[in-house]
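Hello,

Our lab assistant flagged a job as stuck in the queue for most of the afternoon. It eventually completed. Since we weren't sure the result was trustworthy after the delay, we are filing this so someone can double-check. Below is the sequence as submitted and the structure that was eventually returned. Let us know if re-running is recommended.
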Amino acid sequence: MLRAAALYAVAAVLATLPAAARLHSEYMSTGLPGHGEAAPGDHAQTVYRFWLVGHQLEHGRRPWRDPYSFQPVVEPQVNLGGWPYGLPFWPLEALFGPVVAWNLLLLSTIVAAGLLTFAWLRTLAVPPAAAAIGGLAFAIAPYRLLQSGGHLLGWAAVFLPLALWALERSRGADARPAAHAYGFLSAAALVSVVLSGQLHLALGAIPFLLAYAAVRFRPL
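-- returned structure --
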C-alpha cells in the first residue's frame, strides 16, 4: 500500500504539471491564467464553500448554512457543497492560505482515487501490479482530472471506489456488526456524491452500485 501511495503521489504531481510547480501562488484550476497570482474562475466559488464550513464552525454555527451569499435579498442558504472537503480545508486554509489548501486537497484527491481503486481491486483478488495499474488509470484519468480544476465532479468521483471497496468488505465480513458498518460506509459514500452537488454523477453512480451489489450479493 505504501508503494502504491508513492506511485500515485508521483503521478499526481506529474499529471498536474506545470501547475504543480506553482503550488504556492496559483490555483490548480481550469480558470483564467493566474500570471503569478491566484486566478479567478469557477473554483473560487468552491473554495468559498469549503472556507464557509470552517468559518461557521469557528463561530459555533451550523456548517451547512450560508448566511452571506445574496444578502440581504434572500434568506440564508443551505451550503452542502462544502461536504466533506470543507473539513480538511479548514485547518489547511488556516495554516497555508486558500491557494495552497486547495492545491494540496486536489493533489490528495488524486492519491485517494488511486489508493481506493487499488484497495477495491485487491478485494477482488486482482494481483497487486494489475490493481496498481487500475488505480493509476482512475487516478489520472484525463476527464476526472479536468473536472477537478473548477468543479467537484472529479473530487466526488473518489467516493465511487470507496463505495465499491466498502461493499466488498461488507460481503467478506465475518460478523454482522462489521458487515453493517461497511455497508453504512458504502451508502454514506454514495450520499456524499449527492451532498457535494454532483447529481449528474449520482444518476450514474447509484444505479451502477446497486447493480454491482445485486451481482455480488452474498447472504450472511
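-- support follow-up --
The delay was a queue issue, not a problem with the job. The result is valid. The chain has ten helices and two strands. The longest helix spans residues 98-123.
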